[in-house]
Specification:
heterodimer; A: alpha/beta; Peroxisomal Thiolase, Chain A, domain 1; 9-stranded mixed β-sheet; two-stranded antiparallel sheet; 13 helices; globular; B: Peroxisomal Thiolase, Chain A, domain 1; 2 domains; 14 helices
Chain lengths: 388, 383
């Protein structure tokens, strides 16, 4: 059966900040309003709404999706919230995609929101209850510790140094200096700054990690026949993929994210991509930690295993390199309001492929980009490929 | 090629007030294995995508999505969670099949309500944190107020609401999966303790544990794999305002909108004529009446008298909640919509045993996400 083509026709985002004065509803509406304005639509044109947001524990609101619904414009409309932990930001456009590709809807609004600052004193504590209640919670692990384990495993397996990895943080925070919505852009940052920032959980230093943030992003999706009436520069969703590995993360080899590979292969198949390293021009992999960008480039089959650090060292992944990676500034630079950060990556590809990215614009008229997110217990990969 | 979507496998575990010897993972495993068996599919080879419906606070685990794949056979497969009712999950599976990219999809919903020590405290966290929660009211007040408004607007009586309890709990006596079957009188119901006036405790569903899984397939696969596929004729869902201050209390706009969407897909103009029987939300007895009116089966104020006349009994012209409904089976939290749909499928397959209805070909399932939400879904099936 031939698939209905789905395009992104509009996008908007709030500033990513450490502590927003707006409620989650208001952040959602700000992003929604910008996305609608960007393509001259109103809520009357929207047939259904998809929402992405990470744990209810951040806001302390049960059924957070219901609470946020009117802020996301879902009053008297079909509305659902999808949820794959940190992978949600790149899953929610997939949810929008199947709403349109199924033929049930022609124009769908996709909103991703996160307000982490409500959690006091620090959002990290919301993650204490993500662990298995019998086998893990009694040990009181937190996310930084388990990612430190994964980073260490990655470094040991391939003989990668902390400074190899710190280059990613430097690249992304420098890129973010050109992003008007960024929280941590810094044009002057150096590898030494990263290495000398305080250790949180060895080998993870403070500047290896993206900041806790508040923010929202929205995009508008449309079926082919409608998209061409809305804009002359639609950005097509060419492939989507997602994959969830076992919850027993202690039984897996953390050196390689096979679930990301499986999600990528699904998306490449759908997009008809045979040689991703040649056919993908911009990559926005998930970078909540600097080592994760490298890890994910390998899982996406865009670098050989253990070889991703060399791409950064050679400048290939810089904004003017052969394969720009996180030209937005990524989570490390723009900020990490979990679900919103993932959708920010898709919005960045939308602006880059339409050549509307301003100071962040990647040269050479890129034609195709890939966004990816990751989440749960180092367990889920979500991938969207877009092209013009 | 036609692109209809069918349900080719069903499985469930439960339903019962407590399940101390089983974890939620074991409940899910039982339900899913039965569904795979029923459909004759292998989850590792044949099922292409998986969906669970769950809410973190009901599970007591943040990012509950983490703990869904292992017991469903979904490890290293495209799987995701919808934080919605079971019918939202079903709608998601339906859309995935309709894209043409997936031919067999599994959807699962479960409840381990007996593990929740302070459900009313959890539900209170669903109130608006700025406007409502500081009032420190038990969230059941929303149901009481909504019932009062509904009775006031439509002239429906407390006796008519009690009739729903009597009917559904008697129906449950014929359902081996329903733990709350009872032979009550109207007086028994009305003389029970109040919960949130005018709503009484007897008119409110107790909780149940259990899990349900469905296997959906494209038309081509369904005709190949199944002797009795149950077709999804239409599926709709909608939200009214989440804020208590802004929503319509007398009728359920979200039920109306969801039903309109489902009727449009199914090509149904006169629901009462087209649909043979229904399973609808009855977490609170008055909801069954309110929903039947919002679905267009009765005009406002007419569902109560119709119930009193026996129209919605098993032997009546329009049977409603023959399974026993939530009042008879229990409230399964996020899985409620799948419980409603399960009964429709059993009836359409002719597998409902002592409560089997004769000559049914189209059934409707409706579900509501419970207080304090205004989120509803409707699905219509045929054999």
């Amino acid at each position: 059966m031939s698939m209905r083509k789905v395009a992104i026709v509009g996008a908007g985002m709030t500033k990513f900040v450490r502590r927003a004065l707006e409620t989650g509803k208001e952040l959602s509406w700000q992003a929604t309003r910008q996305a609608l304005d960007s393509c001259d639509l109103t809520m009357d044109d929207i047939e259904a709404v998809c929402l992405g947001t990470a744990p209810d524990a951040f806001d302390g609101v049960h059924m957070k999706g219901e609470y946020l619904s009117d802020g996301a414009g879902a009053w008297r409309k079909p509305y659902m919230r999808s949820y794959v932990g940190g992978g949600t930001g790149v899953f929610v456009p997939i949810q929008g995609w199947y709403h349109v590709a199924s033929g049930l809807f022609d124009v769908v609004l996709v909103v991703a929101e996160e307000k982490m600052s409500s959690y006091y004193p620090h959002a990290q504590a919301a993650f204490l209850t993500i662990f298995d209640h019998t086998t893990e919670r009694p040990l009181k692990p937190n996310l930084l510790w388990i990612f430190a384990l994964e980073m260490n495993r990655y470094m040991q397996t391939y003989g990668i140094s902390k400074s190899d990895i710190a280059r990613v943080a430097v690249k992304n925070k420098r890129n973010a200096a050109d992003h008007p919505s960024a929280l941590l852009g810094d044009a002057e940052i150096t590898v030494d700054d990263v290495l000398n920032s305080e250790t949180l959980a060895w080998p993870v230093n403070r500047l290896d990690v993206s900041p806790v943030s508040d923010g929202a992003v929205a995009i508008v999706l449309a079926a082919e026949h409608v998209a061409k009436r809305i804009t002359d520069k639609p950005v097509w969703i060419e492939g989507v993929g997602w994959n969830l590995d076992t919850a027993y993360w202690t039984n897996r080899d953390l050196a390689y994210p096979r679930y990301v590979e499986y999600a990528a292969r699904m998306a490449y198949d759908m997009a008809g991509i045979k040689e991703p390293r040649k056919q993908i021009h911009i990559v926005e992999p998930y970078d909540p930690f600097d080592y994760k960008e490298l890890h994910h480039l390998e899982g996406l089959l865009l670098a050989d295993r253990g070889q991703a650090p060399q791409l950064v060292a050679d400048g290939i992944t810089h904004r003017d390199g052969d394969m720009p990676v996180c030209p937005s500034g990524g989570l490390l630079g723009v900020g990490n309001p979990i679900a919103a950060a993932g959708l920010m990556k898709v919005a960045e590809l939308f602006w880059q492929l339409r050549e509307e990215a301003g100071a962040r614009q990647v040269p050479g008229q890129p034609k195709r980009g890939l966004a990816q997110a990751w989440g749960d217990l180092m367990q889920v990969g979500t991938v969207v490929i877009v092209g013009r | 090629m036609s692109d209809r979507v069918a349900i080719i496998g069903i499985g469930w575990s439960g339903f019962r007030p407590i399940s101390p010897e089983l974890s939620y993972k074991e409940l899910m495993y039982e339900a899913a294995s039965r569904a795979y068996n029923d459909a004759g599919v292998d989850p590792r080879k044949d099922v292409e995508s998986f969906i669970t419906v769950a809410e973190d606070f009901h599970e007591g685990t943040s990012i509950f999505d983490e703990y869904t794949p292992d017991q469903l056979g979904a490890v290293l497969k495209p799987m995701h969670t919808i934080t919605g009712d079971g019918l939202h999950g079903l709608a998601t599976a339906y859309m995935l099949v309709k894209t043409g990219q997936f031919s067999i999809v599994a959807v699962e919903g479960h409840s381990k309500a007996s593990n929740i020590l302070t459900l009313s405290g959890v539900t209170a966290y669903a109130q608006d944190p700025v406007l409502n929660r500081p009032l420190r009211l038990n969230t059941q007040f929303v149901a009481g107020m909504e019932m009062n408004r509904y009775l006031h607007d439509t002239g429906t009586t407390a006796q008519q609401c009690a009739e729903v309890v009597v009917k559904n709990r008697r129906n449950a006596l014929h359902n081996p999966s329903a733990p709350y079957g009872a032979d009550l009188s109207i007086g028994d119901v009305l003389s029970g303790p109040p919960l949130a006036w005018p709503l009484g405790t007897q008119e409110t569903a107790e909780h149940s544990d259990g899990a349900i899984a469905f296997i959906l397939a494209s038309e081509e696969k369904a005709l190949y794999l199944s002797d009795f596929p149950i077709w999804v004729l239409g599926i709709g869902w909608s939200n009214d305002s989440p804020s208590l201050e802004n929503r319509n209390w007398g009728v359920s706009n979200s039920t109306k909108d969801a039903a309109f969407m489902a009727y449009r897909q199914a090509g149904i103009a006169s629901p009462y004529q087209a649909v043979d029987f229904a399973e609808v939300d009855d977490i609170y007895a008055f909801k069954e009446l309110q929903v039947l009116e919002s679905l267009g089966f009765f005009r406002p104020g007419e569902a109560g008298p119709a119930t009193q006349e026996g129209l919605t009994q098993k032997e009546g012209a329009f049977p409603v909640n023959v399974s026993g409904g939530s009042l008879g089976i229990g409230n399964l939290l996020d899985a409620n919509g799948l419980v409603r749909a399960l009964e429709i499928i059993l009836q359409l397959r002719g597998e409902a045993g002592p409560r089997q209805l004769e000559d049914v070909s189209i059934g409707l399932a409706q579900s509501w996400r419970g207080i304090p939400t205004a989120s509803d879904a409707v699905a219509i099936f045929s054999n």
